[in-house]
């Protein structure tokens, strides 16, 4: 038996005015690697390459605030702590998560990130969005 696939007279036709159109299709989160306007680290406002400036300033911040925890030195702890955090729509830092070889090193890595300055938020098509970032911090005993 062959069945017709087109609508029958009981099919309701929606008025065009009742169809909801989303006027803003900008996602809530956009990765740093693909975002149109990267978050701006203070001091990078006039940089030619803001992406590179951001990464350089981030490394400078880590070096400047880095303190090898005494307890970690005494226990001979070293290794890499991988941090993931989000630069919020207002430029603040939130959603910090870390994974490392020991809690002492994780705590120090989180402290370094907590000292980051407020940034100009990243934008996608002119709209501020959250930008997740992943950064490793390596602890190595001399």
Topology:
Layout: H1 50-65, H2 70-75, E1 79-87, E2 93-99, H3 103-114, E3 123-124, E4 127-128, E5 131-139
Antiparallel strand pairs: 1-2, 1-5, 3-4
Any key phrases for this structure?
3 helices; 142 residues; alpha+beta; single chain
Account of the protein in words:
By secondary structure, the chain is an alpha+beta fold. It has three helices and five strands. It has helices at residues 50-65, 70-75, 103-114; strands at residues 79-87, 93-99, 123-124, 127-128, 131-139. The strands form two sheets. It has a three-stranded antiparallel beta sheet with strand order 2-1-5, with helices on one face. A two-stranded antiparallel ribbon has the order 3-4. Strand 3 and strand 4 (127-128) form a beta hairpin. The model has no long low-confidence stretch (mean pLDDT 88).
Radius of gyration: 24 Å
> Kindly state the mean pLDDT as a whole number?
88
Low-confidence spans: pLDDT under 50, at least 5 residues?
A: none
Binned strand content: 15-25%
Calculate the terminal CA-CA distance, rounded to whole Å: 82 Å
H/E element order: HHEEHEEE
- State the share of residues found in helices, binned by percent: 10-25%
Largest sheet: 3 strands, antiparallel
């Amino acid at each position: 038996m062959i069945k017709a696939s087109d609508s029958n007279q009981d099919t309701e036709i929606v008025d065009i005015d009742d169809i909801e159109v989303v006027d803003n299709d900008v996602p809530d989160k956009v990765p740093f690697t693909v975002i149109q306007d990267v978050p701006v680290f203070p001091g990078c406002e006039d940089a030619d390459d803001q992406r590179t400036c951001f990464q350089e300033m981030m490394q400078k911040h880590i070096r400047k605030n880095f303190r090898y925890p005494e307890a970690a030195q005494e226990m001979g702890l070293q290794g890499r702590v991988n941090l993931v955090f989000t630069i919020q729509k207002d430029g603040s830092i939130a959603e910090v998560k870390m994974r490392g070889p020991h809690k002492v090193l994780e705590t120090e890595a989180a402290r370094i990130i907590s000292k980051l300055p407020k940034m100009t938020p990243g934008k996608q098509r002119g709209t501020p969005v959250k930008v997740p970032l992943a950064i490793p911090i390596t602890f190595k005993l001399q």
